[in-house]
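Weekly sync, protein design subgroup
Attendees: M.S., D.O., the rotation student, P.L. (late)

Item 1: inverse folding check
M.S. brought a backbone from last month's batch and wanted to see whether the design step gives back something sensible before we order anything. D.O. pointed out we never logged the input encoding, so this time it goes straight into the notes. Structure tokens as presented (99 positions):
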């Protein structure tokens, strides 16, 4: 009898995670529940968002900063790919020009 776990793709994970309670991430094809966010972490995340947003504005860079609610795809080299709405919140950045 095999008890092998079927690994999930990003396309399978995103709709699966959308209906789940709590915060989830996909790690090497396996859904992993994240610990609940604490208030100090939320405050630190907000400070990082504001600092990054202001630095991008000051430099006039064609980037957007998203404080929460975005899922990101990162390839093996660390490049950021497709962004799409999701839960749980994640601080992320995009080098996609603003519309």
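Designed sequence read out in the meeting:
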């Amino acid at each position: 009898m095999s008890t092998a776990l079927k690994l999930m793709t990003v396309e399978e994970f995103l709709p699966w995670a959308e209906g789940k309670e709590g915060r989830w991430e996909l790690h090497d094809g396996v859904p992993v529940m994240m610990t609940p966010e604490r208030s100090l972490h939320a405050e630190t995340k907000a400070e990082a968002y504001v600092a990054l947003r202001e630095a991008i504005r000051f430099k006039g860079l064609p980037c957007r900063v998203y404080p929460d609610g975005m899922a990101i795809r990162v390839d093996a080299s660390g490049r950021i790919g497709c962004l799409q709405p999701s839960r749980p919140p994640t601080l992320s950045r995009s080098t996609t020009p603003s519309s």
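Discussion: The chain has one domain: 10-94. The two ends are 53 Å apart (CA to CA).
Action: P.L. to compare against the previous round before Friday.
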